[in-house]
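Two proteins, back to back. First:
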Amino acid sequence: MKSTLAAGLTVAESAIHGKGCFATVRFRRRKKIAEYTGERITNAEAARRAHRRVLRISGLDQRHSIDGSRGGNGTHYINHSCRPNCYLQTISGRLIVLALRDIRPGEEITLDYVSSMHSDRKRCTCKASDCRGTINKTTAGA
């Protein structure tokens, strides 16, 4: 599957981790940034693929996930931050990335993963002043 970047986004080196997803246009608070796209897979298949070193899988609902590394549009490069500027919402069976606040061109797009397929011990590298220390929100890190 060939990837095409979502409008208004670019992928570049990130100070948080590897590559990141960056705004090329202004995104206003509560407005759609893009749809998280990729291969729609069952959650069982997502668990099977979870052994990868870098995960690009996001849960969609109780039965399905989206593997952004296969046919994604750049949104699969959105890194975790304990102080995110966007969030995910499932709307009509689609995973939509929405701005939590106004986002300026050049700014890295970030999500709080809260609960991911990463180990609860996976360290966070977001550098936020209120960083909880782990990617997943755990009772030990919350």
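And the second protein:
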Amino acid sequence: MSSTDTRWCVDDIADAIAVGLQNRVDADRAAQAVSGVDALDEVSLHPELASALGHAGYGVHREERYIGARSKRSRSEGRRCDLVLTPDNRPLQDLQAVATLFDDPNAVPLEEAFWLEVKTVAQHTEMGPNRSWSSDLLGTVRADVTKLANDPNIFHAALLIVLWVESIEVAEHDFCVWQDRCLDKGLPIATPSQRVISIQDRIGNAHCVLRIYPVRHL
């Protein structure tokens, strides 16, 4: 199977994440939790996303090395992607096992997988208004697009941005600014899939607005 034979639906991935986050929001409300999911930092949110995608039937592989970094022999070397998805909960190919007794015939080739970088930014934190809101969104997030676009062996990729905001209007405005700046810099993002979840306002955030931007090669 060539990389062009695999079909990934970004809308389905967005739906799975939205369902998982909604379930977490509902559970927090039922438990009358002091802190909500919007208080989680980015790394702590990854298990929630992985669980949501796993429940939807995807194989979820965390902190996988980029394909271009796998020329390094040590598994500890090289840049890593937050989440790598495979269809039907299948394993991900291990290049070191290819053509050995440990080679899994059901494993998905790295080029067939879906590579997903994650960025989450909260307008309000437990410490108060997030003073680095703009720089977090406009600076570091663009770097992830570049990483995905620069790996010539990644054919299915996207950036997931999760914004915790006091109003949907804030998210829409700042997404537009971010998107325009990416396009001005020639970054290869495509039309995103967006989902909106209402959350209990504990620290100033009342909505979760997530967008998944497909990323093409530079």
